[in-house]
Amino acid sequence: xxxxxxxxxxxxxxxxxxxxxxxxxxxxxxxxxxxxxxxxxxxxxxxxxxxxxxxxxxxxxxxxxxxxxxxxxxxxxxxxxxxxxxxxxxxxxxxxxxxxxxxxxxxx
Length: 108
Prior knowledge:
mainly alpha; about 0% strand; 5 helices
């Protein structure tokens, strides 16, 4: 089922650029219930809306899926690895999110 796009959704060009850096396992992995792009769109929605995790709209992946994947991206040291590369904008995005999570002690 297609959903109506949010203003925070990543464009096709942006996705083509960042997807290889965000993929920690194959897109076809059996444990993946939601597309990585939709999970990333959920993360972008949270950051843009400034909402708590549990306020995630129902047409995006569940909040706990987005939260867990965000923790994996942060723990993978992805922001640090990309700091000096072309992906400065995605690095800043993840670093900002990581600091927001730790400074506000946001609970899921």
